[in-house]
Each structure stands twice: as C-alpha cells, then as structure tokens.
Amino acid sequence: MNYKEIGKTGMKVSNVGFGASSLGGVFHSLKEEQGIKAVYTAVENGINFIDVSPYYGHYKAETVLGKALKNIDRNKYYLSTKVGRYGKDGVNTWDYSGKRAKESVFESMDRLNVNYIDLINVHDIEFADLEQVCNETLPALAELREQGTVKHVGITNLTLRHFKYVIEHTPKGLVESILSFCHYTLNDDALSDYFDYFEQRDLGIINASPYSMGLLTERGAPDWHPAPAALQRLARKACEFCKSKGESIERLAVHFSMNNPHIATTLFSTTNPNNVLKTIKYADEPIDEQLLADVIKIFEPGFRDTWVNS
Predict the structure, then answer these.
(1) Residue 208 parent element (H or E)
(2) Calpha distance 204→4 (Å, rounded)
(3) Fewer CB within 10 Å, N- or C-terminus of the chain?
(4) Tell me: the pLDDT tens digits for 164-214?
(5) Residues annotated as catalytic (active site), given as ranges
(6) DSSP 135
(7) 135 vs 123, 159, 165, 169, 207, CA distance in Å?
C-alpha cells in the first residue's frame, strides 16, 4: 500500500480508498453484516481513507458505516462525507443552501458515530447553481472548518470544467481537494488534463470508480449504466481480449487507476470482504504494460466518451 498526501491537508492516505456507497445498497442488495466486515477488512489491511454520503442509499450507507466505525479506533482512518444531495422514500433531492449544509454535517456525524469529519465535500456540483456553491455552500462549510467540526473542505463533480469555475470564484484555500469519478479509467483519462491546474493551486486529487461504475468488469455494465451503447460494446470487447490473454480487466483497471502519482487515492466500493483483499492485491501487483496499451487501443474509438450524471 502506498500513502500520499491529499494536497496540503496533512492527510496522508492510502492509494486504495474505501468508497462506502455500496453500504447503501446502491449497486446491489446489501447484507449488512457482510458490509460491516468489509469495512473492518479494509482498515485492518491498510486502507485509511473512507468516503460516504447521505445520498448513498438515502442515509442508509452512513448508518451502516456508522455501525462499523463504532468499533474502529478513530485514529486509524480519515473520513469523508458530503452535503447537497439527499433523498427520501426513493426520491432524490438536492439542497445546496448553507443552512442545510450545516445541518447535514451534524446529522451525518450522528449517523457515523463521530464527533468531527476529516473532509466535507459539496456533492456533485454539476446539479447545483455554481454561484450558490461559491457564495453560500462553501462559505458555510468554511465556518464549520473554523470551528473544528470539519477539518477540510472539498468538492465532487462529474463535469470536470465545473471544478475550475468554483476554484476561480472562491478565495484561495477555501477548496482543498477535488473528487472526480469515471475520468481516470482505462476508457477515460480526462482528469489528467487538470493535474497541473490542481497541483499549482495545492489542491488534492481524489479519483473514484476504477471500474467506471461496473463498465470495466467481467460482469459488465448494469442495466442502469448511462454509458453510450457503443462504449459498452468496446468495454465488452476489451474484457474478452483480457480473458483471451489469461488476464482480468478488473485487475488492469484497478492497477491503472490506483497508481498515478498525481492522484492521492482512488475509491472503490464493495460489501464483500474478499473483494477488498482482491482490490488491494490488484493495486499492488505489476501489470503487463503491453496488455494495457492494447486495451487502451481497443477503447480508442470511444476514448473519453462520457455521459450525463443522474
């Protein structure tokens, strides 16, 4: 396991990060006890960065994670959660007001059984009024940072250009990290265009979803996956090519996403303790560079093709 600092936050985190979205039953049905064991397995094997959100499972992921965290020494992990996206009774909701952001932080701490949050993020700013994020949401979180309720402040987003807008319309140091998903994978490395921009501003870079939300797996993209059909066909072709070489696309995908020196940590999500161990192993093992080049070439017709978040 490698450890790198997130920007200038002082948080030195494992290059493999635990994304707790699966604890909300977001991708598959959840066996709660198994999910809690997955968290224990992650921390016991060197993963020290855990990310969650009240949106995942509409508060369920934070609740399940909180049951696990009750039994883990607080000094063994950094905890990240979010504000702005919520839900109830199966209906998604958004509220980026400063008032709701502050309320949400304290509600999250109650669910998570902690008395401070290491990193609080404005969640999926592509859904927000960016002026409200700059002038209301982030200043509210900065107040909580000054009080010590949260230690650091970040933003998450699918649409990469929005990061620049927010960073350039807020005081230096207000935003300390960015979290991008599905933009540093075998089929899309668009995040790399922004490495210099973020680093010149001392911003930490967090990556998520090395499997591109299931696209880069032998199981294949789930029915709800928003990737264009042409890109899904390329992913299946790449998967079959890896199998023909006695390799798994999952191992290639994890190693690629989790070993870039510009990225502090890459988040993956599972409720299966065995998958935790497998992912750590994939990240540490060397890969066949020729195979990697061949797979990236397969994706060439749809490389960096993206989709609209929902």
Answers:
(1) strand 204-208
(2) 10
(3) C
(4) 999 999 999 999 999 999 999 999 999 999 999 999 999 999 999 999 999
(5) 56
(6) I
(7) 16, 20, 12, 9, 26
Dihedral of alpha carbons 209, 120, 204, 136, sign: positive
- Cα separation, 139 vs 126, whole angstroms: 18
Q: What is the pLDDT of residues 72-107, one digit of tens each?
A: 999 999 999 999 999 998 899 999 999 999 999 999
pLDDT, tens digit (0-9, with 9 covering 90-100), for 254-273: 999 999 999 999 999 999 99
Q: Which residue has the tokens 């950094």?
A: 78
- State the number of CA atoms in the 13 A half-sphere of 9 facing the CB: 28
**Distance between alpha carbon 126 and the CA centroid of its chain, in Å?**
15
pTM, 2 dp = 0.96
Under 8 Å between Cβ of 43 and 77: yes
